[in-house]
Design a protein that fits this description.
alpha/beta, Aspartate Aminotransferase, domain 1, Aspartate Aminotransferase, domain 2, 13 helices, 15 strands, binds 4'-deoxy-4'-aminopyridoxal-5'-phosphate
Length: about 400
């Protein structure tokens, strides 16, 4: 029998190296119990959570929990079917209507995850005769969606509209459609896309533009609609994809647009058609979170104050923190073993962040990916900064 796992020999060797340096599996951390939005029980210790996507703290929303409980009692725990069969309830339609209203767009499709929203939208929008232009630092769901699409893929330099423009110019006579895909805030680094410039380039070249606002929805813009709202170019962004699993605190994804053709995706997008729809209690909780997000704009103000606090604090410690101020703050370290040691010591000091190692990181740099929430208190951020300072000193950084 051929060893079916032989292709993973390199991966196994890398994981063994991690195991030799790390007293615990950094990719198998168990939150024994979330105690609040900002504190979780890890290894029996109360630990500050600085590595979630729970930007507004809504995973612990009382209104969302109440809505979920009431709905589960009325409608059961799951739909047991896909959106095109028995899996569309009135609640799914209601959420689509509400999201379309929030984004001031005509159409909205709800998917079972944000991953599937990218997979489903990109694979259905781009056909084999079309060209996809992807930012080099795109999320895995964008790359996977492009593979499922069979379209030609051209990567451009991260956050570089000039590079995109040059690459579009080279294929100006291509008869198929051209779809540019960017993210509002990049999940690993916190970099914000220059959306206005990207919108100008797409107009100049007659291309379409899809923005994944997964990390920027609820975070950027006067109403929290993301980078397109912040840079006042929503009319030039043809499709917005996003997720409920970050600022809304639940799970699921969406694609909104003014183009009526998007409705056809319901009839041809495999990640939309061939998977079970979201359970009703999740939809109810998401609707409640959306209401709370819209009723409490001050959450966004606090979130950005906290983002400044963490970002400036890390810079003041002399660490290589992200240049952009956003709720995602990456600390770049020089070597993988140093990153692993740093991450372990932070956890032992009661601070959880995400450890991101090459090849899953931009430019193959090891990162400590930190994120803040509106729910963090200034004292909690100071405690995290103290831990960073202490560990940096211990490791001689
Ligand atoms: N897009 C981006 C940019 C993301 O970072 C993520 C999740 N990390 C997703 C899409 C997928 O969202 P979900 O986890 O809700 O499936």
């Amino acid at each position: 029998m051929t060893d079916i796992f032989a292709k993973y020999a390199g991966l196994a060797a890398s994981f063994d190296t991690v195991g030799r340096i790390s007293p615990r599996n950094p990719f198998g951390v168990v939150i024994e119990r979330p105690l609040s939005a900002t504190v979780g029980l890890i290894e029996g210790r109360e630990t500050l959570l600085f590595g979630t996507n729970n930007y507004l703290g809504l995973s612990q929303s009382t209104a969302a929990a109440d809505a979920a409980i009431a709905t589960v009692r009325k409608e059961g725990v799951g739909t047991t079917g896909s959106r095109i069969a028995n899996g569309t309830y009135a609640l799914h339609r209601e959420l689509e209507r509400r999201l379309a209203e929030t984004f001031q767009r005509e159409h909205c499709l709800v998917f079972s995850t944000g991953y599937q929203a990218n997979l489903g939208a990109i694979s259905a929008l781009a056909g084999k005769d079309d060209i996809l232009f992807l930012d080099a630092d795109s999320h895995a769901s964008i790359y996977d969606g492009s593979r499922l699409s069979a379209a030609q893929v051209i990567r451009f330099r991260h956050n570089d509209p000039d590079d995109l423009s040059r690459r579009l110019a080279r294929v100006k006579d291509h008869p198929g459609a051209k779809l540019v895909v960017v993210e509002g805030i990049y999940s690993m680094t916190g970099n914000v896309a220059p959306m206005r410039e990207f919108a100008d380039v797409k107009k100049e070249h007659g291309a379409w533009l899809l923005a994944d606002e997964a990390h920027s929805f609820g975070v950027l813009g006067a109403h929290g609609r993301g980078a397109a709202e912040l840079f006042d170019c929503e009319a030039d962004v043809d499709f917005v994809v996003g997720t409920f699993s970050k600022s809304l605190g639940t799970v699921g994804g969406y694609c909104v647009s003014n183009h009526p053709g998007i409705e056809l995706i319901r009839l041809c997008s495999r990640p939309y058609m061939f998977t079970a729809s979201l359970p009703p209690e999740i939809i109810a909780a998401t609707l409640a979170s959306l209401t709370e997000m819209e009723a409490r704009p001050e959450l966004r103000t606090t979130l950005m104050e906290n983002a400044h606090h963490l970002n400036h604090g890390l810079h003041a410690l002399g660490l290589r923190a992200s240049p952009h101020v956003s709720p995602v703050v990456a600390v770049t370290l020089g070597a993988v073993d140093q990153a692993i040691r740093f991450w372990n010591r932070l956890l032992e000091c009661g601070v959880y962040v995400n450890l991101s190692l090459p090849p899953a990181t931009p430019d193959d740099n090891p990162l400590l990916r930190c994120s803040v929430m509106a729910a963090h208190t200034p004292a909690e951020i100071d405690r995290a900064l103290d831990a960073f300072g202490k560990v940096a000193q211990e490791l001689g950084l």
